[in-house]
Write a structure and sequence with these properties.
Blueprint (H helix, E strand, L loop, with lengths): L5 H26 L6 E2 L1 H13 L1 H13 L6 E5 H8 L3 H13 L3 E7 L2 E6 L4 E2 L19 H30 L1
Antiparallel strand pairs: 1-5, 2-4, 3-4
Amino acid sequence: MRVATESEYRLRELHHKEQYRLMAEKLEQEKKNSDFTQVYDAGWKQIENLIMSNPGAARLYTFLARHIDPSCGAVVASQELLAKELSCSTKTIRNYGKYLEETGALIRIRIMGSVYAYAMNPKEVWKSWDSRKEYAAFNTKTLASNKLNGDIKRRLMIMMEKSENKEESTKQSKNL
């Protein structure tokens, strides 16, 4: 059995401290992107389509994208707040939200009254670093009353299927 000398022990300890420092430095670097929002190719295409078809909905989409929570890819806001921020009526916000939901850009989950959780499609827009995507709103357990839970789950699945179908058709057209 080999016994480490005092100097070997200190060398190992220094090595471990250096590894720990490098890891902490790397994590700190990753945190520096906290104000950074990633927009993927599908997100840019979505923005281009929205600008052409419904500029107001494009404004709502980009506002929500800038304010999504990095831990889940969603933002909770009242329609009154959104209307004030975008200088329009709450009815207009409802129409924009409905349009964005129909295009697969997001889903709206009613929280209470005029307050909604707007879950962005993580294949289009993402706030945190890419490796955190497993925690996206689309991959988490959604807590809602029994009446709403099935509907929310169905809408999430439809949105992800639409997004996957878009990606597949884009890949096929590029291969032609």
